Structures are given as structure tokens and as C-alpha cells.
Amino acid sequence: MPANLPPGLPIVPDGEAPGGQHMSSSFPGTGPAPLGVVSFSMSPEDFEAAVSDALLLIPDKAARAMDNVAIFIEDDYTPQPGDDPGTVLLGLYEGVPLTERDSWWDAGSLPDRITIFRQPILDICGSRQEVIDEVAITVIHEIAHHFGIGDDRLHELGWG
Fold it and tell me: What angle in degrees, to the nearest 10, is found between the helix axes of 128-146 and 44-56?
């Protein structure tokens, strides 16, 4: 675990944990590589390292403010009932944002969950550097949801 992050922020590849409130970031135009374009190949270990490196980009003050959140890596998102079957997500935040927590929240609440989806990111990237950059954008985007920042504002800020 990166040294600047508080305890309770594990990176758990292919982890399983119950989710809470469903908040997601879907990126229009992303998805499987176009016909004839081969997605970039990266080992699960190298991808996990890219996620760890992205977590190091979080400013210390923000990392210290994060509370009760776990970060997971899974291969792909499985659309849930009610989702468009073609839904492609690079990352997913599930939980109660810090801005919506009240005194009731702390009593036995499960950690928020951030999941980074490996294959959709690899599908839209053509090089190692593109993967590293996209992972960083996705990690920061999902952490911003933990702080209560919505998709519209993230797009305005360039973290769409």
C-alpha cells in the first residue's frame, strides 16, 4: 500500500465486497477496441502497479481525508439489472460520499468501494503509457466521487 494513504485503503485485485449506493463513471466512446485495433496487453501485476502508482498521485491532504474506502481491481464490469447490456465502465464508486455522511453513517458502515476495471482500460489503450495515464484518470475520478464530486463537475475539470 502506498505510504501516503491511511490504513484501510487496500488494493484488492478481483476482490469481492458488498456495495452500497451505486455511483459510476461511464465514458462515452469507450469500449472494446475498434475492429482491427488490438487492445494493449498488460499483466495483472503490472496493472496493479499502475493503480498503486496512481494512488501516489493523490495529495497527502486528500489521502488523509479519505475515510473507510477500499480499492479493488477486477477484470471487467458486469452490467447489473436495469443497466444497458452494453454498459462499459472503467471504474466504479459504490458507497456514501463524504459530503453525504451524517452521524448515523459511522455506526457499523461497510467501507466504500472503488473498483478499477482492467480490461476496458486495456481495450481503449494502445501503449503502456496510455494505460498508466488512463488508470490515473480513472482512479482520481472515482476518488473524487468519494469526496462527493459528480460526473458533470469532473468533466468540467478535465477528469471525465
Answer: 50
For residue 11, what are the β-bridge partners? 71
Q: Which residue has the cell 443497466?
A: 83
Largest CA distance in the chain: 53
Give the separation between CA 75 and CA 77, rounded to whole angstroms. Answer: 7
Cα of first residue to Cα of last residue in the chain, in angstroms, is: 26
Bridge partners, residue 92, by sequence: 24, 115
- The closest of 144, 120, 147 to 156, measured between CA atoms, is 144
The low-confidence residues of the chain, meaning pLDDT below 50, are 1-33, 35-36
pLDDT digits (tens, 9 = 90+) for 4-33: 444 444 444 433 333 333 333 333 334 444
Q: Is the dihedral of CA 56, 57, 63, 69 positive or negative?
A: negative
Over 17-47, what HEC string results? CCCCCEEEEECCCCCCCCCCCCCCCCCHHHH
Grid cell digits, residue 47: 496493472
CB-CB neighbours of 138 under 10 Å: 24
